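Hi, here's the filled form for the chain we discussed.

Project: internal
Contact: R.S.
Residues: 325
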Amino acid sequence: MRAAKPICTLSLDLDNQWCYMKGHGDTGWESFPSYLDLVVPRFLKILDDFRWKITVFVVGQDAALEKNHETLQMIADAGHEIGNHSFNHDPWLHLYSKQQIDSEIAQAEEAIEHATGRRPRGFRGPGYSISKATLEVLAEREYLHDASIFPTFIGPLARAYYLLKSDLGKEEKQKRKHLFGNLRGGLQPIKPFLWDLGSRTLLEIPVSTMPVLKLPIHFSYLLYISTFSPHLARLYFQAALKMCRMAKAEPSLLLHPLDFLGADDVPGLGFFPGMMCPNSKKSAWLKWSLQTVSSSHTVTAIGRYTVQNLDQSSLRVSSPIGRVP
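And the returned structure, exactly as it came back:
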């Protein structure tokens, strides 16, 4: 009998155009320019082709705008899980007080449920922002899981590149001084674990990185590598999946809207790595990557995985301290 494929959880952070403009310091983001009506049908079609149901983390501000309701409802109607990606998509969420964090998460929760009919039970912080206070709020609000940990050592390099490409002032750069984490982030586990929050625990599903080396393997990173060498990117991804299997780590892979968009779709986001690549080239690469995952893993949503497949009684327990790396 053929052995069952290992499980891979798949999620998509539905960061909108205004989110990237805001983070980059561009003017005009306050009018909330959007590409949701373009990108959502694209990724829904691809996911439907694979017959996958994944977790889509929605930004509350987008859900609060009536113009986005029909598009967001399409995601829920297609059977995908809906997660909370904060309301304002501030990557410096970890700097907020617990009261501010509770308001941010609750406001997003309400707007998302109103727009989609689904109350989110999972959370991912914008820019992988996470703190002890955030974890406490999630546990108190009875969330099933957090998915904000990004265990890699290259966070400071990613932050340096991001700030170099921005036109931000000193105050705005200060807000982003912990963006993408620090070197200690690479010491975090790549497998699911439990946060010890005193009277409560909260399940953490880290965004997967390569075992041992802790290099990113999310699709935006792979697409960026492919702009230099598609062959290298393929070998890199195949090796990463093989290493996950050897380490008995069920990967949790991450998509972004820009994985489905090219410079010909949204010219104003050319500052983002890989966004100078036309959509036709991106689409071919992404389909190969997803087919590679499909051939070796059973893909599911994060929430379904935590309920149906994960034995939480055997997980390690960790205690958060201050701003979690």
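Let me know if anything looks off before we file it.
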